[in-house]
């Protein structure tokens, strides 16, 4: 389980740098200020959770079922939340907005909240 957390933490971290640079340099002229801010929100949340996955991957002592749920909640949450924002912003900028992605963003947010809630629960039961 640690390897999965470390792999996705590294992947999400690397991609957040790439997407952040892409947004700051190439999309700056193409996106509205609101679109750019939404894109940056996706990048920030992706990086926050990349770091969280790395910390978890380096610190988990055993792979209990709750650890597995925490890690998968963060991985699924980042993918649904951040990547749906990227899709919405880029498709809107190209005047072909993929509206079906709209409901996916809050679903990704729920997975992120679930991951944090499970992490809090784990701390409380081990406290």
TrEMBL record:
Subcellular location: Membrane
Database matches in InterPro entries: DUF423
UniProt keyword Transmembrane helix present: yes
Topology versus the membrane: Multi-pass membrane protein
Segments crossing the lipid bilayer: 6-27, 70-93, 100-124
Chief place where the protein resides: membrane
Keyword set, alphabetical order: Membrane, Transmembrane, Transmembrane helix
Family recorded in the similarity comment: Belongs to the UPF0382 family.
Classification via PANTHER family: TRANSMEMBRANE PROTEIN 256 (PTHR43461)
Protein name per Swiss-Prot or TrEMBL: DUF423 domain-containing protein
Organism, as annotated: Polaribacter marinivivus
């Amino acid at each position: 389980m640690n390897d999965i957390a470390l792999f996705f933490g590294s992947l999400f971290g690397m991609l957040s740098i790439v997407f952040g640079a892409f947004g700051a340099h190439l999309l700056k002229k193409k996106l509205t200020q609101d679109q750019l801010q939404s894109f940056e929100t996706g990048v920030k949340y992706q990086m926050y959770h990349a770091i969280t996955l790395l910390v978890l991957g380096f610190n988990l002592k055993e792979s209990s079922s709750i650890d597995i749920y925490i890690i998968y909640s963060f991985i699924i949450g980042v993918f649904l939340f951040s990547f749906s924002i990227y899709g919405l912003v880029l498709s809107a900028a190209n005047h072909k907005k993929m509206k079906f992605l709209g409901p996916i963003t809050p679903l990704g947010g729920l997975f992120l909240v679930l991951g944090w809630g499970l992490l809090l629960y784990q701390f409380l039961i081990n406290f």
